[in-house]
Amino acid sequence: MPEFRSFRNSAVVLRHSDWGEVDQLLTLYTREQGMVRALAKGARKITSRKGGHLQPFTQITVQLAKGRDLLIVTQVETVNAFLPLHDDLEKTGYAAYVIELLLRFSYEAEGGNPTLFKLVVETLGRIEKETDSWLAVRYYEMRLLDAVGFRPQLFECANCRREILPEDQLFSFSAGGVICPSCGIGLPNLTKISMETLKYLRHFQRSSYRDASRAHPSLTARKEAEVLMQGYFTYQLERGLNTPGFIKRVKS
Length: 252
Prior knowledge:
Elements: E1 6-19, E2 23-30, E3 34-40, E4 59-66, E5 71-80, H1 84-87, H2 89-104, H3 114-129, H4 134-148, E6 169-172, E7 177-179, H5 181-184, E8 190-193, H6 195-206, H7 209-212, H8 219-237, H9 243-251
Parallel strand pairs: 3-5
Antiparallel strand pairs: 1-2, 1-4, 2-3, 4-5, 6-7, 6-8
Helix pairs in contact: 2-3, 2-4, 2-9, 3-4, 6-8
């Protein structure tokens, strides 16, 4: 982190917790520094001008000062509160899923990633505005994996490196990509992936969101892609995610 006592950052509030009697401990993802923790003194006071700007999912501009052990929030302004994300439980769930993935793949002191910051902000905006969040979430998953170095191999066999033919394939979480049917004979722990699902995941991996939004996968492909991505994340993180269960309960 740069050696100066006060600096201004663009940030998204990921989570907060009570600290002491009136303070809040924040986890922020900043464009300039990556993930940081900061203390908002007095934020829980009724008269505080800071508290309203520090809700999860909020995009802010924040002035941070170096304290003895933690960064201190000295000024904060809301850029976008994404209010509909708090008013609709399903949207809340998807926004929380975006944040949970970011938290699981980010570490303090790893430095800023402007591309990832932009992706998070744009994804929250898409979930806020669009009726169906499926596309925004799947696109986010693929681009997040690119940004953090876990891009799945979808265009050639992860085992023999030959180009994938237009037929149903297999997917290996441990190999990090598609396995052709020939290589899949006898290999353990493989998941089937249809050519339709693979086509859309490839599309999300290499296209702009504008182009990706023209995709209209079948319900079967949507479910298959979602299950596949959850399995891939579980393998990479070595544990399951919490928010998919919440989303499922809300939908049911």
